[in-house]
Amino acid sequence: MGSVATPMTPGLSPAYAALKTNAARLNATLEYSCQWGATPDGGMNRLSANDDDKRVRDWFVAETAKCGCVHKVDSMGNIFAIRPGQNNDLPPIGLGSHLDTQPTGGKYDGILGVLCAMEVLSTVHEARVTTYAPLAVVNWTNEEGARFPPAMLGSGVWAGQFTLEHGQTRQSVTGETMKQELERIGYLGSTPCSNTDNPLSAHFEVHIEQGTILDGAEQPVGIIRGAQSVRWYRLVVTGRAEHTGGTPMDKRSDSLLVAAQMIVNVNEVALRRNFRATVSTARSDPVSMNTIAGKVELSLDLRAPTDQDMEELESELKQAFSSISAKHGTEFSMDIVWDSRATYFDEQMVDCVRQAAISQGCEHEMMSYIGHDS
């Protein structure tokens, strides 16, 4: 999509211009870190605050200490590995992502961002460079939300999007709370989880695309200007559970039939608007071969370029769902369970990334369709 011709930010000073990260070391370190939670198929299963998460956290603290870092662990378990700079009264410049994964996650989602930050740290340390401001490599807690929904919980509390009480009381499906498990693994820290009490000057995050746009453009790196609006919903369709043989077709209130038509509608609207919309899970009740489903729960994931686009998308889908439900004599509810507004990154920070990417022959600019800690 092109780039801005005139840079907003000055070029690198001679002290930094010659620095090069070590790609082979980065890859080897990443592979080493993935021993905790590795699955037989080459993927990852390292849920937040489980035993493997403790092991990789311990390793992260030990490795970053070798580069002269001191560590802060906050009350949500976020770890800040801070290498002092020339002006330590300034808040650190943060680089990082997350080390927790989905139950069937990959080696690069989140992990790459933390390991890239560690490689920057190693490169600076080897060159004996003292940066103007401190550097902080950050491992954010429970970004995935796979064990303790919602996603981006640790960074969300730090950013003021969730209260500390909300963050610490999130429960797993087996009943443990976030606070209990952080305490169990030794990462319930004393530093306040707050961007005012423990601020950063900036935060940069490397992340895999998790899509095909860059592959189609034959570009290894994209310059991200911001993140799209994302909303998650819980849909419940309620009909009547009746016998499949005893209930005539025109007398039914079939919640599964209504849910199926809603799913088709979601796909049609998303294709027409060129947005992302997905019904990702469905659960019917009762689960019986000869019983019409009386209740269906759906998980709906919507993504749109702007908050206004999201409002319009939600409105159109609600109207369609209401019509489909009424036609078949069912009732439905549509509740928001997570709402992440569209975010546009600081232009000077974007321009720093832009200059670095252009120097490597990469000019593709895009919005992120996926939520991240940054």
TrEMBL record:
Annotated GO MF terms: hydrolase activity, acting on carbon-nitrogen (but not peptide) bonds, in linear amidines
NCBIfam families: hydantase
Pfam families noted in UniProt: M20_dimer (PF07687), Peptidase_M20 (PF01546)
Protein name per its UniProtKB record: N-carbamoyl-L-amino acid hydrolase
Residue ranges constituting the Peptidase M20 dimerisation domain according to the UniProt record: 229-326
Organism: Cyphellophora attinorum
InterPro entries found in the cross-reference section: Amidase_Cbmase (IPR010158), Bact_exopeptidase_dim_dom (IPR036264), Peptidase_M20 (IPR002933), Peptidase_M20_dimer (IPR011650)
Family: Belongs to the peptidase M20A family.
Entry superkingdom: Eukaryota
Signal peptide annotation: none
The entry's keywords: Hydrolase
